Amino acid sequence: MVDKDRLSFELEEPGKADRGDQRFSPSESAEIESYYHSLLEQSLDAVFLTAPDGTIRAANSAACRLFGMTAEEICRVGRQGLIDPSDQRLAGALEERARTGKIRCELRFVRKEGASFTGEVSSAIIGGGSRSFVILRDITERKLAETALRESEERYRILANNATDVIWTVDMNMRLTYISPSVTRLLGFRPEEAMARTMRQAFTPVSFETAMASFAEEMAIEISGCGDPGRTRILELELIRKDGTTVLVEGNFSFLRDTAGKAVGLLAMVRDITERRKAEIALISAKQELEVRVRERTAELVEQARALEESNVALKVLLNHRDKDRKEIEDSITHNIRNLVFPHLERIGQGVLSGEQLKNCSNEIKKILENVISPAPGRLSSTGLSPTEVRIAEMIRSGKSNKEIADLLSISDGTVRKHREHIRKKLGLTNKKSNLQTFLQSL
Predict the structure, then answer these.
(1) Please, which of 74, 88, 395, 419 could form a disulfide with 400 given CB 3.0 to 4.6 Å?
(2) Sheet arrangement for strand 56-59
(3) Do the domain assignments include residue 283?
(4) pTM beyond cutoff 0.90
(5) Distance CA 186, CA 179 (A)
């Protein structure tokens, strides 16, 4: 077996073997060559054994796959055939390797078909300066990923720096690791001032307790492994401004995770919802006021409906009264003609009246007809007066004297006076000083 320590020493100073220091037997040399070959072939990176002048003495299979060449082609074209001639970094890299004996850098290479790629080179001079060992790894994908990451970070940086919402990140110990410049507009602190504050200082006491309780709940979910890794939690909290006042914000909180999915911090995006809350309160107030007005208007409409219903009832009663009044008027007219006019007409028809009596009777008929629509006689008859008493009462109402009434009715004055007494009694005027004519005119 080959002593690995001796082999390592040979790797560091293989030139000694060339200078006649035969440290290995022929069998050991064969084993060393086989060992070197095994190491080269098992490597996933391209490995070359070169000379400082750029000559390539050997290349492994990974190098052949990387450049699309055979080992013989790689050895034939040498260093100049693999490195992009326009890469100005080569001269500096060779100078540094010559000075320090090793180098690690990035250079641009060219494949057989002409495509270029970026490679990471690790090289060391061995064998007393006569040989060099080169390991090359294609980092094109890594460079693309780094470029994409830088561009993404730049986009997010621009977004965070120009967002109206405040964006911050904290580690799992609640220490701020980033806060966007928009914090100045929201709280009055410069970003560096805000970064120096703790979460306890940033929130009002009640909001801090709310935030910590929510964080504890989320950590319990995290430990259980049952939660959605992309879940978020929205909280309404109060932050303290630089001037000591508070501002109500809505915060959207989620975990930041590493490549393994482990929570390593928190991302928060918060926005001022003061105006929104005022609008919500105003909307609630307007709604309540509208409900009050609706109730009041409904009560008014109910009252109006009740009043209308009462009016309808009253109108119905009024119409009934009107029908009754019409009937009474018709009855009154019939009564007046039958009881006041017909008796005079009968007397005239008998032909027993003198010329003066006929004239008086005619005048009386005229007056009766003029007042035929008057409801007084009807009302008089409703008082319990007899037909004769009604006729006498009507004559009294019109101003006739006892003698005139006696002549018209062909009765004596005494009979008229007796009828007057009966009329006063039936009208409730007995023992009263009320004038009968005036009373009758008031009916």
Answers:
(1) 395
(2) 56-59, 46-50, 131-138, 116-126, 102-110
(3) no
(4) no
(5) 12
SS3 (DSSP) at 196: coil
The sign one gets for the Cα dihedral 190, 191, 192, 194 is positive
> How many domains does the chain contain in total?
3
By DSSP bridging, strand 176-179 and strand 246-257 are unpaired
pLDDT in tens, 164-200: 789 999 999 999 999 999 999 999 999 999 999 999 9
Other beta carbons less than 10 A from residue 381's beta carbon = 19
Angstrom distance (rounded) from CA 404 to CA 29: 181
202: exposed, middle or buried (C-beta count within 10 Å: 0-12, 13-18, 19+)?
buried
Residue 278's alpha-carbon distances to 188, 272, 281, 283, 437, in angstroms, are 22, 12, 5, 8, 83
Q: 342-371 burial, b for 16+ CB within 10 Å, e for fewer?
A: ebbeebeeeeebeeeeeebbeebbebbeeb
Is-contact 254 267, C-beta < 8 A?
Answer: yes
- Report which of residues 24 and 441 the model is more confident about: 441
Element (H, E) at 398: none
Torsion, CA 93, CA 94, CA 100, CA 101, rounded to 10: 120
Q: Which domain holds residue 53?
A: 4-144
- Is the residue at 168 inside a domain? yes
Tens digits of per-residue pLDDT, 246-265? 999 999 999 999 888 899 99
Confidence of residue 36 (pLDDT cuts 50, 70, 90): low
Contact 263, 257 (CB under 8 A): yes
Asked if residue 226 belongs to a domain, the reply is: yes
One domain, residues 31 and 133: yes
Q: Which residues have a Cβ under 8 Å from the Cβ of 182 and sit 6 or more positions away?
A: 161, 163, 164, 165, 166, 167
Both 106 and 209 in one domain: the answer is no
CB atoms within 10 A of CB 248: 16
CATH number at residue 193: 3.30.450.20
pLDDT at 380 (0 to 100) = 62
- Please report whether residue 201 resides in a domain: yes
Taking the mean position of all CA atoms in its chain, how far away is CA 31? 79
Amino acid at 235: L
10 Å Cβ neighbour count for 111?
14
